[in-house]
Amino acid sequence: MARRGSLAAPAKSKAAGVVHRLHALFGGAEVRRKAAARELARRTPAAAAELVQEVIQLARAGSEGAACVLTAIVSAIEREASVLPHAAQLARLARASSLMSVAALFPEGEARQELDPDEAARHDARLFSQSLGFLKTQARLTRSPDLLARLATVSNAAVIRNVLLNPRLTEEHVVRIAARRPARPEPLVEIWRSERWSTRHPVRRALAFNPYLPPEVGAKIVPLLTTKDLKELAGDPGVHASLREQAKLLLEASKIGGRSPGA
What we know:
The chain is mainly alpha-helical. The chain has helices at about 1-25, 30-40, 45-60, 65-80, 85-95, 100-105, 115-125, 130-140, 145-150, 155-165, 170-180, 185-195, 200-210, 215-220, 225-235, 240-255.
């Protein structure tokens, strides 16, 4: 037991050093995400899993820098897979080492609910008869609030990707897209991948509580929520069971480790 404690302080110190370096980077979310991927890739999968666990703990303890870096890390795990240790290996090692906050980032199973793709396509066809190329251009450039609002209801990921680039889009619009039910998963995932919008708490919250969001994406968002959000999520039967359990796990860890965001 003493040996375990003797190893904990160096691990926390190393994690704090990584947080300091990554949080100090200039260049925005993409730069930080790629730097986080490099930090994980140069470690063994076991050491990478331990680093992620420590950053989660620092973030839940109230460190703003760690919360920012945790965003970069969970984004890197999903979007920089080509340069990272295999996700399945990270998950397996996290479980074997009882790093349960890390293991919870890799749930299995389908979304709690799913909209049939044919039904979604019929909905889109009823709204618009124009070509996909035309809709993508309109989504990115239209100045009409009404047209933008209609385009935001399309299930095609490419259209939503361009909607999210429209300079007239507001946070309120994005929250509505993120909370829409029923929904295809593709538009929801596009919001999570948007560096402009995925850092906003109302958007993250709307995604995490949407039962149509794939749990492997939701699990990357849950550690970024506030304690108030986690308490609500833990008791919400409408979300995926793995996300409820993840919320409970993080709440328990917060009780052990001290105060946490949004407490």
